Each structure stands twice: as structure tokens, then as C-alpha cells.
């Protein structure tokens, strides 16, 4: 039997409890319903104070809007991170790079700008929980990706390559690799499921935007830049006519297991 594709895995039910902190019911309602169809349990609150209240039922992941009526979502993120390592994905209409950087520096694990699709959000939820080593992800029957090692710091290792979504840092053989924000987003997306071929459209929709109308050659340019900075084109291989995948180059495969 052939292994399931990335899209097939995305459609598998996932028994996780999510805390959605979102004041707009027009967004929260359809979002909770959509997530529910994939097996997620969603607890919805409308204010930052309610999100910070100790209800006794700890969520597996927090979906946090920044534009809350009672307090800034960045302050909620700071408070949550001060007391818990729960994964946090910010969902907001604020798309400026400064907001993304501040949110990530405060401890958010990912940042998703509105509007977005439910399937993209689920893919990010699974990538974040996989990188964080969340127990709910393992309990849902998802095995660790071969060749990756999540650590307590949030860093993920693919052979000698380490990608840290929390600090947005990349190291290869222990040495830092300087990437632009978009290059990092592309590498982090591919590293979320090493070895899996991601279609060009999937990459563009997730790393850029579902409504991006620029030339698709921009993806090729970023792939070329990443290959150059990683020092070996074998890190990102091309599936002709489909897309790209992240792999450990053949001469480094002995290092994949640590």
C-alpha cells in the first residue's frame, strides 16, 4: 500500500483541543465549524481576559487574534508564554512584517494573516504541534517524521540542518545561515514535512498568499537562493511538474539520525 500523501494526511481527523480567542463571531463561528469537521474540539472565547482565565481544561494549542476588545493580543501572547509552553498561532488582519516579528519574538509559534482557508490553518496547526512535540499530536496517531528531532527549545533538526520557528533562526553544521524573512518561511514550510513533495501552488498559497498574483518564478528564485545559502542544491529537490521537497543530501544521510 502506498504511503498517504500530504493532502490525505491533512484530511485525517485530529483529536486536539483548541482555544480560539477571537471577538468576531462572523469569523469564529465558521472557523470553529470547519475545524470541528476535521475532529478538532474548539473552545471559543471573545476577550483576552477570558482566554487567560484558568478554566481547568488546558488546550493543546491556542489560536489568538490580535485585535481583541479588551487588550492587545500581543499582551495575551506574552502572558500565555510566561506561564505555559502551549503552541500559539496568531490569526489576525495585521499583515505588517513588524507585527509578525513582534509576535514571534514574544513566543508565538506561527502567524497567519486573514483571510485564510481552514485547510491551510490545519496544516500549520499540525506543523506547529509536530515541531513542538505536542503530546496530543502523538496521541492522535501521527508518528514523528523520520530524520527530524524536535527539541525543548522548539528547534527542529533535519540531519545537520536546524530550523527554529520560535526564534526564526537556521543553523547548518552548527553555523548560522542568514536568510531573508521569505526564505525562512519557505524553508520552515518545507521542513515541516521533510521528504514530502509540496506542489508549487501549495507553497505559493502558504508561504506567499492564496491571492498572490505575481510571477511564479519568484518561487524558483527563492529556491535557488536557499540552495545557494545551504551550500548544496541537494537540500531542496525538484519533483518535475509538481513542486519541491526538503531532503538531506545523499552525502549527509548518515547524519540524519543525529
Automatic annotation (TrEMBL):
UniProt domain OmpR/PhoB-type: residue ranges: 153-248
A Gene Ontology cellular-component term: protein-DNA complex
Residue ranges of domain Response regulatory in the record: 17-129
Record feature DNA-binding region, as residue ranges: 153-248
Alphabetized GO MF terms: phosphorelay response regulator activity; transcription cis-regulatory region binding
4-aspartylphosphate: modified positions: 65
InterPro entries: CheY-like_superfamily, OmpR/PhoB-type_DNA-bd, Sig_transdc_resp-reg_C-effctor, Sig_transdc_resp-reg_receiver, WalR-like, WH-like_DNA-bd_sf
UniProt keyword list: DNA-binding, Phosphoprotein, Transcription, Transcription regulation
Gene Ontology process terms (BP): regulation of DNA-templated transcription
Name of protein: Sensory transduction protein RegX3
Amino acid at each position: 500500500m502506498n504511503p498517504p500523501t500530504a493532502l490525505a494526511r491533512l484530511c485525517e481527523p485530529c483529536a486536539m483541543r483548541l482555544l480560539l480567542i477571537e471577538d468576531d463571531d462572523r469569523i469564529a463561528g465558521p472557523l470553529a465549524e470547519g475545524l470541528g469537521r476535521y475532529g478538532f474540539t474548539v473552545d471559543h472565547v471573545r476577550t483576552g481576559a477570558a482566554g487567560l482565565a484558568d478554566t481547568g481544561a488546558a488546550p493543546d494549542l491556542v489560536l489568538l487574534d490580535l485585535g481583541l476588545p479588551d487588550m492587545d493580543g500581543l499582551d495575551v501572547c506574552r502572558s500565555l508564554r510566561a506561564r505555559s509552553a502551549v503552541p500559539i498561532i496568531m490569526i489576525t488582519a495585521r499583515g505588517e512584517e513588524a507585527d509578525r516579528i513582534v509576535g514571534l519574538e514574544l513566543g508565538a509559534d506561527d502567524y497567519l494573516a486573514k483571510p485564510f482557508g481552514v485547510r491551510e490553518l490545519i496544516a500549520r496547526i499540525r506543523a506547529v504541534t509536530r515541531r513542538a512535540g505536542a503530546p496530543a499530536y502523538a496521541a492522535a496517531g501521527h508518528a514523528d517524521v523520520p530524520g527530524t528531532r524536535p527539541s525543548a527549545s522548539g528547534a527542529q533538526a533535519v540531519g545537520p540542518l536546524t530550523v527554529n520557528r520560535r526564534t526564526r533562526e537556521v543553523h547548518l553544521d552548527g553555523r548560522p545561515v542568514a536568510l531573508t524573512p521569505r526564505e525562512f518561511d519557505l524553508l520552515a514550510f518545507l521542513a515541516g514535512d521533510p521528504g514530502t513533495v509540496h506542489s508549487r501552488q501549495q507553497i505559493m498559497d502558504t508561504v506567499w498568499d492564496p491571492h498572490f498574483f505575481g510571477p511564479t518564478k519568484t518561487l524558483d528564485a527563492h529556491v535557488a537562493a536557499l540552495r545557494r545559502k545551504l551550500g548544496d542544491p541537494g537540500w531542496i529537490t525538484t519533483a518535475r511538474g509538481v513542486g519541491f521537497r526538503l531532503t538531506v543530501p545523499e552525502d549527509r544521510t548518515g547524519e540524519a539520525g543525529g
